[in-house]
Structures are given as structure tokens and as C-alpha cells.
Amino acid sequence: xxxxxxxxxxxxxxxxxxxxxxxxxxxxxxxxxxxxxxxxxxxxxxxxxxxxxxxxxxxxxxxxxxxxxxxxxxxxxxxxxxxxxxxxxxxxxxxxxxxxxxxxxxxxxxxxxxxxxxxxxxxxxxxxxxxxxxxxxxxxxxxxxxxxxxxxxxxxxxxxxxxxxxxxxxxxxxxxxxxxxxxxxxxxxxxxxxxxxxxxxxxxxxxxxxxxxxxxxxxxxxxxxxxxxxxxxxxxxxxxxxxxxxxxxxxxxxxxxxxxxxxxxxxxxxxxxxxxxxxxxxxxxxxxxxxxxxxxxxxxxxxxxxxxxxxxxxxxxxxxxxxxxxxx
Length: 328
Fold this sequence. Notes:
Shape: flat
Number of strands: 35
Radius of gyration: 26 Å
Number of helices: 6
Number of domains: 3
CATH architecture of the largest domain: 3 Solenoid
Helix content: 10-25%
Largest sheet: 9 strands, parallel
Structural class: alpha/beta
């Protein structure tokens, strides 16, 4: 398969410097691109790689125009990374597609479930009683959608996703756990993508809600009654505990944890591996972790941390004595 540079620019826009008739047969990073590949540069720090790249054409920002032209053909656009994302979409549209049944023969769909005529249900999926699947939504293999859960339009659920398993709710009585039945469901908006083996629990009473445009990576756990605002993105292995509310346009780095019943405002960015232990009501970038170190040094620092409170009290006593001696 190949696309002409001219066709790409005609479809997606951008300012082409070079031969529009050049055929592109692959998309690649700067380091490995062949002489017939299209690549991109989104970070000026990698300008050195640009000069050395063999790519037939490179997508760059206006600030890199001159350097790119000195190397060879380029497409200049305001946001190279976004442009490259749209090139990948264009490329996929050109790939040959094999005809497949809308609902795979191995899928199990309850007769009361409502599936839009344009939804696609993959191998070994289970869609339970009362579930609803919107237009253009695709369930890859082994996806489970629990009873009464709703998935909006143009969503993509990757293999192994589980929507609507019971939330983790138990009451302790005389040393034993009594189950709290999870009577809510899960409501997922439009244009949501959910990565492989991610689990979103149904609510205990009210529904767990994932708003429009949310992007979830693989192996994420969303607890019961959580609400995630529109266009928020979470990387792999994030855990959001029950009844937490995450605002719109937030990002949560891989392996981070948000404790239950907390609120994150809109436009909050959480660093990877952080543990959010309090509500965050102002937009910004937040980090909460103990930096990795040589194990022996880490143990010494950890031992020192345990003494911080007593050291603080000793300093307060010393400051008091100092103030008293100044008065005398």
C-alpha cells in the first residue's frame, strides 16, 4: 500500500515542501524511517535526529521549517503530532478489510439487549440483559457488558474489557463480610476508548459514569460510583477507588492511584505512580511519590522520614528557648 504526498496534503492540509508525486509506503519514527517513509518531529529536542533521518518526508512545526527543508521534503503544520495522528487514521482507512459478521457467532447476546445496527460485537463477547450498545461502537474479543449497562456511540472496547462487574462493597459484621448488592449500572458516553483488560465496576446505588471522549489505557480499575469527566485520559494500571470524581480534561499517569470519595477538578494532571490522598480543587500538575534511589540510600532516607515529627518538635523547643533567651 502507498499514498502520494500530494494526496495526504490534499486530504489533511498542511504546507508541503517537496515533490507531491512521491509515494509513501510506510509510517515510521525518525530513527528507523526508510527513504519511502513518512515521519514526524513534534519535539525540538530531537532536531539532531531530524538531520540524520532517511525519511522521504517529515512533518514539522513552523519553527522547524528551515531545518526540515535543508534536510529534504517536509510538511509544515501547527501541530505535527496531531497531524501524524490523522495520517495514521487516513492510512488505516486505506488498508484492505475482510468482511466479517456484525455479531460474531461465538458472542452471547441476551435477547433483551439493545444493539445498534452499526455496532460490532467480536468473538466470545457477552452482552447481558438490558444492556445497550450505541451506533458505531466496537467490542473486540472477550468483552463483557453487564446487565443494564449503557455504552454510547463510536466507542472502542479492546479485548478483555469488563463493564459492570459488581463494585467492591461489603459491610463488616462480627468479623465477617456481608455483601452490599450493587444495584446501579455503568453509563459510558460517546467516543470513549477503553484498553485491554480494564474493568469498570457498576455502582452500588447510582451509576458509575464515564463521560464523552474519555480514553482509558490497559489494566485500569475504575471503582463503583466513580465519575470521570469528558476527555480525561488515564495511562495503564491506574486505579480509581469508589465514589471518586475526576474532572474533565484531566490526565493520570501510569500506575497512579486516586483514593475513594476524592474530587479532582477539571484540568488536573497527575504524574505517574502518584498516590492522590486528598481532593485537588485547582488545575495544575501534581506529583506525590518518593523518588527511586539506591536501596541502601533509600532505606536511610526512609528511616530519617520516620523521625521528622520528633525532629520538628525538637526544633520548636529550640526556637522557643532561643526567643526566651533573646528577651532576657
